[in-house]
Specification:
Length: 461
């Protein structure tokens, strides 16, 4: 009996001892960092878990915009970034943030903790059971992070939800900014292999438990919110325990240059900006042009053009472009379709300045930054009636439309016709409204207001 008791008490005491050791050590580590930066000992520290902070993508823009905001409005807080970019330095990272995003960060209240075990979360480390592998890997990586620095509050901004319970174990308040749910009930509703289904359900159960450890959850769009809310409601037996309200904090888009383009003097150019990937459905755009010319041959005399700008990454993309050229030929519209592959930014801006309407034909696109860019540039958007463009972007502003929606190529054709036959006043009004809405909705200040309203600072209290 005594042995049994000892056996059960022993591991618990070991854990408690470890935690108390970590806490003492962490105070010392923090002091060293604060001293090195000449910050007062009372400085609160807020840590971001972002192992790929130097990647320069959309997720990184969110990270740096948030940090710049905190630096500006809460100068008494030290932001800490856990990163695995061990080849980079603080200076090189700050320079890249400046050149890539035009975001200026202050080195005075920013500290990087470099992690050497990022391999633990790389997909290539787990050819099988990637979900579980990466999740357990993230636990290992956050353990390294905490062994190097224990902050007053923590936020995961890269979707490593399994780090949350670990952080909470040390009594640190935690939050999450979710760009994309790792898995969610709507996502697995299509899985039909029993073994796989069991795996996904088991994983989702753990994911739900982990996410419930966050006391602040931000999501980047309505789509993500829907999916994260579904995870938090899973399984129903758990009830509301640990469930917090998720808040949408839209990432900001850099629309500064586009918003300077003149609204008037547009040509009969129908523009598409999308990588030549299958889901973008460029074929629907070519078919829409064909349908438009069938109905309204007068556009040919007006010199209408469909311009498809897009990144072409590999042989598959090139083959798709060839297929599209062939389709245009078969439909007899090849002289009106122009492909612009891998265009440099200034060329794209040039097309945005000339175009009248912009197409987005992808079904269920989660967001659609190209649609925001159309609107900011004064190009009337015609977007697929689904996903982010439908729910978040091309929505009424001040009670009036900011663009059009369509599903079939025929509907796209008739929407193009509608947009091209607006009266000059209506035409200008809709371009202006779309621009005002897009620039304001996806602006930095809107992001900051939403970030503040999420209650992140409660984590530090
Ligand atoms: C949210 O993040 C996902 C994953 O990075 C991305 O595909 C989507 O476009 C993002 N949404 C917004 C509104 O930026």
């Amino acid at each position: 009996m005594a042995t049994l008791l000892l056996l059960s008490v022993l591991p618990l005491s070991v854990i408690l001892l470890c935690i108390s050791y970590l806490r003492t050590r962490s105070a010392h580590q923090r002091k060293l960092v604060l001293d090195a930066l000449a910050l007062p000992p009372s400085t609160r520290t807020f840590a971001f878990f972002h192992p790929y902070c130097n990647a320069g993508g959309g997720g990184e823009r969110v990270l740096w915009t948030a940090i710049a905001y905190i630096q500006r409005t809460h100068p008494d807080v030290l932001c800490v970034v856990y990163t695995g970019d061990i080849m980079a330095t603080k200076t090189s990272i700050l320079e890249k943030v400046q050149s890539r995003f035009s975001i200026t960060l202050s080195p005075a209240t920013l500290h990087f903790v470099f992690l050497t075990r990022r391999i633990l979360v790389e997909d290539s480390s787990y050819p099988h059971f990637t979900l579980i592998g990466q999740s357990l890997g993230s636990v290992g990586l956050v353990a390294e992070a905490l062994s190097r620095f224990v902050p007053h509050a923590y936020i995961d901004t890269m979707g490593y939800a399994f780090t949350l319970p670990v952080v909470r174990l040390l009594g640190i308040p935690a939050g999450a900014y979710v760009h994309y749910p790792t898995v969610s009930p709507p996502m697995i509703s299509r899985v039909n292999r029993p073994a796989k289904l069991v795996y996904y359900h088991a994983f989702m159960l753990l994911y739900a438990l982990a996410l419930r450890r966050a006391s602040v959850i931000m999501v980047n769009s309505s789509w993500t919110k829907k999916h994260v809310d579904a995870v938090l409601a899973y399984p129903p037996q758990f009830g509301r325990w640990g469930v917090v309200r998720t808040r949408i904090v839209y990432p900001s888009c850099d629309t500064r240059e586009m918003a300077r383009l003149p609204l008037e003097g547009r040509e009969r150019v129908v523009l598409s900006i999308a990588q030549f990937r299958p889901e973008k459905d460029h074929a629907a755009q070519v078919r829409a042009l064909h349908a438009l010319l069938e109905e309204h041959p007068e556009y040919a005399a007006e010199g209408i053009q469909l311009v498809l700008i897009g990144g072409c990454r590999n042989a598959e993309d090139e083959a798709r472009v060839e297929g599209l050229r062939k389709l245009a030929q078969d439909l007899g519209v090849e002289s009106r379709v122009q492909f612009v592959l891998n265009a440099p930014y200034p060329d794209m801006l040039g097309w945005l300045r000339r175009a009248s309407v912009g197409l987005n034909t992808m079904l269920d696109e989660h967001f659609g930054i190209n649609v925001v860019e159309f609107m900011a540039a004064g190009v009337i958007p015609i977007a697929h009636a689904s996903g982010g463009p439908f729910e978040d972007i091309v929505v009424p502003f001040q009670g009036k439309i900011t663009g059009y929606h369509a599903k079939t190529h025929k509907e796209f054709a008739s929407a193009i016709h509608t947009a091209l036959t607006l009266s000059p006043e209506e035409d200008l009004a809709i371009r202006q409204r779309a621009r005002t809405w897009a620039v304001q909705r996806f602006s930095e200040s809107e992001f900051e207001a939403a970030w503040e309203a999420s209650g992140w600072s409660r984590l530090l209290a």
